[in-house]
Fold this sequence. Notes:
The protein is α/β, with parallel strands linked by helices. Helices cover 42% and strands 14% of the residues. It folds into 2 domains: 2-204, Hexapeptide repeat proteins (UDP N-Acetylglucosamine Acyltransferase, domain 1), CATH 2.160.10; 208-257. The strands form 3 sheets. A 6-stranded mixed beta sheet has the order 3-6-9-12-14-15. A 5-stranded parallel beta sheet has the order 1-4-7-10-13.
Amino acid sequence: MFKKLREDIACILERDPAARSKLEVLTCYPGLHAIMAHRLAHRLWTAHFYWLGRFISHLSRMLTGIEIHPGAKIGRRVFIDHGFGVVIGETAEIGDDCTIYQGVTLGGTRLYKGAKRHPTLGKGVVVGAGAQVLGGFLVGDGARIGSNAVVVKPVPAHATAIGNPARVIEKDSEEQAMSSATSSSANASDPAILIAAYAVDPGAADPLNKVLNELITHVARQDARISNLCQSLEAMGSKIQDTSPPLDSQKLTKIVDE
Length: 258
């Protein structure tokens, strides 16, 4: 028990630059308190003391603002940052080294008792503030869920999902994932390398924007080819009336990128 507690405190000091001391983390971090209470509630739940486990979960919710069903399975070194409004359902499973921000829901979309209704997070998953992960599917190891995303289907390992409904905007190759893992282990003291805060990556591009940019480029090229064709026909003596305004591809690209 004390070994897990030391691990939890250490992981918070690594991932949160606002944490200044072990004493501060132990006494002032509701995410840590919620995890500690859940471990007791989960033990009681698995021992079939259902009411007592649920009551401890209820008390923890009143004190921390974080609701974790005692039936949920939570791994080691899980960090719930800020935490207010986090809801974790009965059949949810959270792997080791995950980071969850405030307002996150790991919820279910089925009403059948005994069924796997809530998501499973692999190892090292980061779930941004306000994200809703709904359903009994898998979010792969190292995946990132952007803030306010609504995820209703599986997310591959080492991918990032944003939007409503969520779209996968990038997926690292195995070589990149291995390189990232090596870099993280070599720079374990740097929280910025360990996780992407709030699952935000400024360098990631939205696939919808990519599609729109490619369509704008294609239309601009076609417009230029048609213009050249019209000039050739006019040089041959044909009269062509074209009243359509020219395509401003740079303006359209700027609007999409903004």
